[in-house]
Amino acid sequence: MNENLMDKVVSLCKRRGFIFHSSEIYGGLSNTWDYGPYGVELKNNLKRSWWKSVVYERDDVFGMDAAILMHPKVWEASGHVDNFFDLKSDCKSCKKRFKAADLKETKKCPECGGELTEARAFNLMFKTHQGAVEDAANAIYLRPETAQGMFVNFQNILDSKHPKLPFGLAQIGKAFRNEITPGNFTFRTREFEQMEIEYFVRPEEADKKLEEWIEARFNWYLNLGVRKDNLRRRPHGKDELAHYAKACTDIEYNFPFSTKGGSASGGGWSELEGIANRTDFDLRQHSQASGKDLQYFDNVTKEKFYPYIIEPSGGVDRSVLALLVDAYNEEKVKDDLRVVLKLHKDLAPVKVAVLPLLRNRPEIVELAKKLTRDLKKKMVTVYDDTGAIGKLYRRQDEVGTLYCVTVDVQSLEDKQATVRHRDTMQQERVSIDNLKNYLEEKLT
Question: CA–CA separation, 124 vs 121, rounded Å?
Answer without folding.
Answer: 9
